[in-house]
Design brief:
By secondary structure, the protein is mostly helical. The protein is built from 4 helices and no strands. About 15% of the residues are buried.
């Protein structure tokens, strides 16, 4: 996201220096969060954090944690397959929610530290 904002600032500089180049630019010249996302065809949504590398790793880790928990419960306590599956799915949901919360908090903190110099007017 930092690189995308930097590229938007460079495009803004080009348009300031030579306004005639603007029709040739495909992405936004604004460096706010919404403009950068829309410039790449994304929309701000709850699911957006899962479209990042960290979000995909979050899902994989959640699956692994859920499967491990289900197998460990089966091996240690000998519960039924249904109860182990429910426990595994529950662990998956909890771990994905926690890792997503952490990712969103970290992303929000990073966003607050970035200065928007050329906001869009929409």
């Amino acid at each position: 996201m930092i690189n995308a904002r930097a590229m938007a600032r460079i495009r803004h500089y080009f348009v300031e220096r030579a306004p005639a180049v603007q029709p040739y630019l495909m992405h936004s010249i604004h460096d706010d969060y919404g403009a950068v996302l829309s410039g790449f065809g994304f929309q701000a949504s709850i699911m957006q954090s899962f479209m990042t590398t960290a979000g995909m790793i979050n899902i994989v880790n959640g699956v692994l944690a859920g499967v491990f928990a289900g197998l460990a419960i089966k091996a240690v306590f000998g519960f039924t397959l249904t109860s182990c599956s429910i426990a595994g799915v529950s662990i998956f949901v909890v771990t994905v929610a926690l890792w997503r919360w952490y990712q969103v908090q970290t992303w929000t903190k990073a966003e607050r530290n970035l200065t928007v110099r050329f906001p869009s007017h929409s």
